[in-house]
Each structure stands twice: as C-alpha cells, then as structure tokens.
Fold each of these.
Amino acid sequence: YSRLRLILGDQLNENHSWFAKVDEETVYCLFETYSEATYTRHHIQKITGFFLAMRAFAARLRDLGHDVLYFTLDDTREAGWETITDAVDAVRQREGVTTFEYQYPDEWRLDQELIKYSEKAGGVVCDSEHFLSRRHDVADLFKGKDRYLMETFYREMRRRHDILMDANGEPATGQWNYDEDNRGRLPAELSIPAASTFERDAGEVVELLERHDIPTMGRMPGGRFTYPVTREECLEALKDFCGNRLVYFGTYQDAMTRRDPLLYHANLSFATNTKLLSPREVIDAAVRSWKQDPERITFNQVEGFVRQILGWREYMRGVYWAKMPEFATTNALEHRAALPGWYWTGDTKMNCLNHAINQSLDRAYAHHIQRLMITGNFALILGAHPDEVDAWYLGVYIDAIEWVEITNTRGMSQRADGGLIATKPYCSSANYINKMSDYCKDCHYNPKKHTGEKACPFNSLYWDFLDRHRERFEGNYRMAFMYKTWERKGAAQQAAILERAAWVKEHAEEL
Ligand code: FAD
Ligand code: SF4
C-alpha cells in the first residue's frame, strides 16, 4: 500500500468521498486502543457500542471492496500500542506506507494528538463531511460577543440550508420558534409506542474488556446490547422515529415519566455521533414525514426536531471549537462540592434522581430534560465541581463524545462558562419537576415542603443557589421574579430554608 487512511471510532460514514472508489493502493485502518477505552470511565454499553459499530463498519467496507486492517483491543495491547498514533506509526512502518491521511477529529484531544504526529511524521487532513456547518462558523458569527445566542445561529442555518423556509426566504409558517407549544405535560392516557431495538449478545466484547481490565460504569441487563450499530439498522431506527414518535416529539419534548425512558424522543444521537447517519438525512426524513402527513405531524413537532439538530447540535460543536481548550477548565460559579456517590449507583431516596440515574446506568440513555433538569439541575444547585459533573456525563451516555458532552454539561447545564450559552441558569425547585413529571407522586420527600425532614432537597438547594449567587444573577431580567419571590419569604423563613440547605449539602451522600 502507498496510502494509509485512519478511521476513528466516530467516523463511520460510508458515504464519505474517501469510499467513492476502490483503490488498491489504499488501506483503511481502525484500531481499538487502550487510550480510547480508558480516557474516562465509560459506560459498558458505550465502549461495547463503539467497538461493535467499528467492527461492523470494517466488514461493510470490505464488502464494498476496500482493503481494511482492523485491530482489536487484543491486537493493539499485544503489540504494545497505547494510543492511536502509536498504532498508525507502527502499521505505516510495517507496511512501508508513505502517505497518511485522516479526517478532522471532533475531539480536541485527538485533534492535538494527530496534529503533533503529522508535524513529525507527515499527514494530510480532510473534512469528515458530516456537519452542516464548519468548525469555526460559530466563532465567526459571534466574534467579539460575550454571549453566543443559539437562536441567531439557528436562523442563519435555516436560511443557509433552506430548511423549513418558504419561497421568499422567510420561515415556513412565518414563525421561527415553537418553544411555547413544546412544553406539554404528558396525559396519563396517552400511549407511548415501543421503539425498535436491535438486540445482540455482547458477551465477546464484555469478555475482551474484562481481559484487559478496562474500568467501566453502568450495566448491560442480560448482556444484551440493543442500539443500532450498522447503517441499515440506523436507517430502520430513523424510520421508526419518523413513523411513530415524531408525531408528539415537540409537544412532549420536556415531559418526563416513569412509564417510559424514551417517550417521543429519537434516540438517534449514537447513530449521528458515530456518523452512521448524517444530520442532513435525519432532518430531511423528518421534514418529509411532515410534508407527507401535515395533519398528523404538525409543524411544531418537526420544527422542534430540526431545531435540535440543525440548531443545538451544530451550535454546540461550534462553541466547542471556539472555546477549547479553555472551556474544559472553566468554573465561573466556583463550585467545589463533590458529586454524591449515588450518581454512580442510583441509590438515592429522591425518586426523580433515582429514576433518571438508574435508567442511565441500565440504558446509557436519558433524554434531554432528564439530563438538564434532574441530574444536571441537582448538581448545579448543590454546587458540584464541574470536573466531577463532566466526568459523569462523559462516561454515562452512549452518545457522550466530548464536543457535545462538555458544551452541554459545563456550559448549558452547570453554567461554568459564565453564561456564554444560556441566558439564565437551568435551575429549578421541585415545583417544575412535579409539573413536568410523575416522579414526585410517591417520593420519600414532599415536593411542597421547603423545610423539615421530609422537605424535597431541590427546594432548599434552589433558594440557597440563588441566594449565594445573588450578585451574579440579581440583575438578570429573566431572574428578577425569582429574587422577588425570595424577598417575599421574609428573614425568618429564608433563614430556615438556608439552614435546611446547609443540612442537605452536608448530608448529600445520604439523601
Ligand atoms: P432527541 O431529543 O430526540 O433530539 C434529537 C437530536 O437532536 C439528538 O439525537 C441530538 O443529536 C440533537 N440534540 C438535541 N439536543 C441537543 C443538545 N442540547 N446538544 C446537541 N445536540 C442535541 N448529547 C449528545 O449527543 N452527547 C452528549 O454527551 C450529551 N450530553 C449532554 C449532557 C447534558 C448535561 C445535557 C443537558 C444534554 C446533553 N446532550 C448530549 C444533549 C441531548 O440531551 C442529547 O443529544 C439527547 O438527549 C440524545 O437523545 P435523543 O437522540 O433521543 O435526542
Ligand atoms: Fe424529586 Fe423532590 Fe419530586 Fe422527590 S419530591 S421526586 S426529590 S423533585
């Protein structure tokens, strides 16, 4: 071979121009490495998912006629290759390959590793051809600004890609944003369709991880892995979502229930983050479904979905490249508390957290509002150190890759970015959780009480958070109402609430 092309575990896009024709001089390489399996403590299903998808992708490329060298964790460990560039270098020497090519990695860590290696040993980088924006589009759009408003970027993307626009270049229906319609509470009688799953025995990968002492978190009930790992399966999952769940995606986007982990969400983030599905085809499929049946799938459902992918997903990636590596160490609120140990076990009496965490440990999945308003909200108002919060989120979810994990966690959820992403902190008391979920019904704690043994810990922590950050947030017009409510409570009640919060913080492990 004269050319080695590296395929990273999250670059499984068979429609990339690399694969347009078969070239006998080119060999494609995929490596399962110790460094990738251990850069954080990953969920067992996350590593399993990546390895299975990489293996299936190698088989697919071979079927298409390409030459592929695949190295399992056994192979790379036996050869003593710790990192991806160790492995690339060794294979280049072994095969006598002169040219090395790779696609832009999405993680800062790997970007740096490959830049350094290429400076020393030569390397040509090309686009991953995955995103609808370029790495630096967000940085360019908001140059010199303290706040990066997602809505501004989203509208720009709608225009640029002509998605949900009318013939005059105006938003279809005349309205950009349907957020107001997308905060519905789930009616008890509404049925929730079961989503397609793609069961396979993951025993072989689990044994491999055990053989190499790879530390993991979470569980894989029955040893069965259920996420789609081939392109065919991902396309089936997309069809299932558009046919069965898009119909209520927007309306119940913020709802939470013990009845079902997924509700009307897509569960496509693993497929898109590994590049098995492109964001454009996912958006096009949803828009097509709406156009085919606008009576059933109303505009707010499809706009809500497009906003997540064309807006939030692309925007978060842009924020990542605008702000790394500083973003990874920001802690604007100077939070220092430890994240309670039960985040790793699910063993807490708080129903909402018990449910959201155990679901995450069992499925490596929680939907956005569970991540933001249950686990994220609690960590924020407790004052947990963003490093600890990041470590948990980067490990626990199957879709957790740093560019989209850290921006959501440290930025949107923990506000460690000082408000770059969000106009106000995503904090709430039990009131919001009780309104949007069925978690509070038979909880050990009382969502209405602020003080006393059975008072919901969210309540005192919420006011304590606002009180201790008063200087920072009091002037924020979106929070003025909350501070007025706090004032109205009077000194005695305030003192009792803050006393309860102090107790909660001190006994966080036992809640
Ligand atoms: P749906 O609700 O069905 O949304 C459809 C798609 O839109 C998703 O698949 C995803 O690609 C995209 N999307 C939606 N919201 C966001 C968002 N805020 N940022 C970027 N893309 C979005 N997403 C990840 O992919 N990886 C992560 O590691 C991750 N960590 C998060 C951590 C926290 C604290 C929070 C609050 C959110 C995080 N998100 C992350 C964003 C979001 O929660 C997930 O993308 C979503 O829950 C995935 O499930 P889904 O496919 O069912 O999403
Ligand atoms: Fe969560 Fe509090 Fe409701 Fe219990 S009462 S489920 S702890 S919000």
Amino acid sequence: LNPIYAALPTTVFEVMSGLARHHQAVNLGQGFPDDPGPLDVRQKAADAVVNGWNQYPPMMGLMELRQAAADHYRHWQGLELDPETEIMVTSGATEALAGALMALIEPGDEVVLFQPLYDAYLPLVQRAGGIPRLVRLEPPSWRITEEKLAAAFSPRTKLVLFNNPQNPTGIVHSREEMQLIADFCARYDSLVVSDEVWEHIIFDGRRHLSMMSLPGMRARTVKISSAGKIFGMTGWKVGIVMAQPELMKVLGKAHQFLTFTTPPNLQSAVAYGLTKDDAYFEDMRAGLQRSRDRLAKGLSDLGFPVLPSAGTYFLSVDLAAIDPKLDDEAFCLNLVKNHGVAAIPVSAFYAQDAVRSVVRFCFAKQDATLDAALERLAGAL
Ligand code: PMP
Ligand code: GLN
C-alpha cells in the first residue's frame, strides 16, 4: 500500500454527505446546487448522446470546446489563448490538478500551498513527490503577506498551487496579494498552478482576475477551470486547462494516461454553454449573491458571527468569539446528528496547526432549503 494513501481519511465531503443522508439533514456541507442546471445545456448533452458521436473524442478535447474556451476567456478575462496549442479538456478540474502536479513536479521539488486548502491538493502534491511548504492563513482576512511568502519560498520552489476565489473561505484574494506571488515566482523561477474553478462565482460587482493575466505570469501559469462550477452541474466532470505550449505538451502527456478523454456529449454541451451571453452569467451570479445574503442574514440574526464571502458557493462562521474552546468538528457532528443540518468543519482543510473555530456552509440552494436549514439552526448555538 502506498503509505500516503493508506493513511488518508475519507474526504470530509463524502463523510458529511453520508451523515446528512443518514440523519435526513439539510445538506449545506458538500458544495453543490439543489437545482438541475440550465435546461438548454442539459438538452444539448442529451441530444449529443442520442444523435451523436459516442466514441473517443480527440485526446486534447473537442476543437469546438477549445475554441469556445478561447473565445470565452478572451471576452471575460482578456486572455489570448491558442486553442490548438494552449487549451486542453480534462475530466474535471480534479484530473487537471492531478495531471499538472504529476507532469510538473520532480521528487524533492518544493510546492507552496496555502492553508486552509482544498482537500485534494496535499495528497496529490505528496504523491507526485513534492515537498509541501504550507502557508497558514487566518480568519477573518485570510490574507497572504510578503513575510509569509518569504518564509515559504526557496530556490527549490517548483510551483505554487493557488486557488482564487478560494474554497473553503469564500474570499477573493486581491490583485496586490496575487502580485506578491507573481514577484516571488519571478525571483525564484517558479510556476503557478492556478485553480480558478470559482472564476464565475464572484460577487458585489467584482470581476475575476486570472493569475495568467498578471505581468510576467502568462508563461508561468497553468490555469484550471471547471464546467461543473461554471454551469452549476458539479457532476459534470469537464475541466479546462490553459497553459503556454511548452507546458501544455507535458500536461497532455499526463492527461493521455490518466483519462485520455472526456465524454464527448458533455464537451459539446459545455462548448455551447460557454457561448451564452453576459446576461446568463450575470443572472447566475446575482441569484447566488441573493442566496449568500439570505443565509448570511439568517445566520447573523441567530447570533452566528458570519465572515465575509466574496465568491464561491460558501460562507463561513467563526465561532471563536462565542466559545473559544469550541471545536469545529465536534460542532458539525452535533449539528448534523442533533439539529439536522450538515456543514463542513474548516479544520479539515488544514494539514497542521488547524484553525478550529470556523464552519463552512454552502448557500447554493433554493430559498426553501436555506430557510429550512435556518429554522433547524435556531437552537444550535
Ligand atoms: N478545485 C476546487 C477549489 C474546487 O472547489 C473543486 C470542486 N469543488 C475542484 C477543484 C474540483 O472540480 P471538478 O469537480 O471539476 O473536478
Ligand atoms: N468542491 C466541493 C466542495 O468544496 C466538493 C467536492 C467533492 O465532494 N469532492 O464542497
């Protein structure tokens, strides 16, 4: 048995969703919307299965999707990408992350990661032979500072694994924080694997800034997107990877022996979806922002100290002010068993020195679902 994998617990998302089913709880844990997603995009996928081509699509992805992605990211993020040499389709962002780390890391290379971190990152880095250099971020700002980066970077830093907008905190790191990372990457000749799966879920009139668009970062960034997030259909495992041609060649080598391809019907439906007009994406954002505000207000009214959320499907509460001894995991277990609401303890996203007072809730739900959760939460503090 590989010791890294043998020692891993089951992911907190699976554990909490299992407990939610068992206790018939309202599930605000694992991040997924409770509506079925855009009908026209689903119809495209269905039509493609019935009428179309169900054999292996090209290894790097359907050209219609790679072209649609090039157009989409030019329009939304000002990126100029060659669909032939700089865009690849993978089976979800998860495959893209695994492949990028396998392809870019040599054993002993150091990888800078920010805690709290999306739970797949650390085992993938370690399995690829990377040495994690963890930067610990703290509530309420979760800010990245020059001092923290200086302590983490070294001449052995191969890459930074960066996630923005950030899961689980729901923060959006500023241009200044991103520029600091870019400056360190230039100084140490490092790459950034930039997990931007939440790029469209960003609130209060802000626009997403891709790491790739910062000065000097075009050639140093592997940008990763996820159609599952863009269209709120998280079971659709369609990832989009963008990088300059030299990097893309080796990323393609990893992809060819991980999954090789991604179902063609989903690819053609995503290609169609990416061409939707601005109003579609603005409406999606506005709807999620309303849900964020509904849950934030409801939680505040009940006395939960709510932290700001600027993007993603998530907001969190910091219970330290209510009870300094509180343990987020114990709190969430009690919540799901005795109050019928599932949430995620943020300590699960730390490898060491965990912050243990923060609990994450998913607000990508119908009003009735949020209200039902709030009703049950009324007695939980
Ligand atoms: N990265 C982050 C930060 C995520 O939140 C998620 C999904 N929740 C993923 C990657 C995985 O995306 P996919 O489902 O496309 O594999
Ligand atoms: N990304 C989702 C979340 O953060 C869940 C992903 C998963 O279940 N692996 O809740």
